[in-house]
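Hey team,

Filing this mostly as a record. A colleague (T.K.) asked me to run one chain through the structure pipeline before their review meeting, and I want the input and output archived in the tracker in case anyone asks later how it was produced. No errors, nothing strange. Just documentation.

Input sequence:
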Amino acid sequence: MVGFVVQRRPLAVGIAVLMLALGAVIAPRLGSEFVPRFNEGDLLIRATMSPSISLEKARASMLLFEKQLLERFPEVTQVVTRVGRGEVGAHADPVNNAEIFVALKPHSEWQSAQSLDGLYRAMSESFADFPGAKFNFTQPIAAAVDELLTGTKAELAAKLFGDDLAVLDDKAQQIAQVLRGIRGAQDVQKDQIAGTGQLKVTLNREQIARYGLNVSDVQDTIALAVGGAKAGQVFEGVRRFDIYLRLNKAARDSAEAIEQLTVRTEAGMQVPLQELAAVEYVTGPRQITRENSQRFITVQANIRERDIGSFVQEANAAIAREVDLPPGYFVKWGGQFELQQKANQRLLIVVPITLALVLLMLYINFGSLPNALLIMLNIPLALVGGIVALWLAGLSLSVPASVGFIALFGIALENALVLVSYLNEQVRQGVPVARACVRAASARLRPVLMTAVTTALGLIPLLFAGGTGSEVQRPLATVVVGGLVSATVLTLLVIPALYPWFMADKEKSSHRA
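Output structure:
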């Protein structure tokens, strides 16, 4: 076979070009994600209720949810719910947020679904109409990673930036509606920025000035009456306790009561607060989130049964088509997509630098740029095998797959280095180039095959593993094994055929001699 290809050098070029074209066609069809989703064996369900809900009502709602979850899904063995989260930890949650930890039976005993995504979908559809709460279905480790690294509580977050909270809320609602219509989107939720009852006191500066008062006089009176002020300390042995003074609850628990607060003027007159300010109940913002000093609202979603990269691409087009954003308002994607973009940016810097250093080392070793380029040619040929393997396995391009490509490059370069070194040695010994190509490929068949086969055998457990975490290992093993197949075949066929075009000057001199 080597002799046949060596005598027909254009055929070798055609094989290489055909393989590269195949990779170029398949590569855009690959999805992209940060890391594959793996089955942790348990679920974490985040519940979001009305901002004004009481602790007792939140507890009752979650008890009802737990009961229904156990009744509807026989896979569930245990449910534990935590309502709110203390202020001592890294993330404080109000009582309208709850986290439900769900223990599951082994996967072989599942009845409602055969896959994790299927179970997510079944639960999401089952509780879509649960009164007074919205749910986000994820897993404990995945949720911790999403929240700690990106600040989001789902796999993907669309952050809408702008100035006006009312406009942000309206446009975020439109974006959420758009995302719900895209295939793969589940648990779509918009940040709750409103719904908290507030007592608003609007000072009338003209009236305050008419009574000879300062704004600070009125503000201090309200602060003392409602919030309280430190009036002293009491000592018990070595312990000290602050004494706070404020009005009793009946005198400060309603707008009418606060309107009756009096402010003393310098003349000794007692002026009721209703003469100096307007007191009213309003529904104000529950929270105002900022990033780089800019206000934003998050629309979060979990992506099921498709990759995040293609989802974001489709979502961007849909938002641009269906949502009219005012000037100064823009969407930025967060969550795992943000991590994926950052990882890709780093790889775009590191990989070219690494390849340039490898090329430099090959040039120093052989003293020939053509020889170094011939060895580097094995990299794209190996790349094609990894891309095809990912496509056939139905996997997306992720960080583990990128690590697999980097490992594959090293093995492919090593095999090509062994072959080209032996070719140079044969030519320097006076063997004709065509015969040297056939002899080198035949003589280095075993070393090249041993390198590929031993590596592939070592990765077979990762390919067929089924335990927790195997989903992260499988893309790496798939890339390396698939790339080794194409790289090994093409190393033994294409490189010997192209060698006469890439001979070093000293080998050419030996050949002419």
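Quick notes for T.K.: The first strand starts at residue 42 and ends at 49. The chain has a mean pLDDT of 83.
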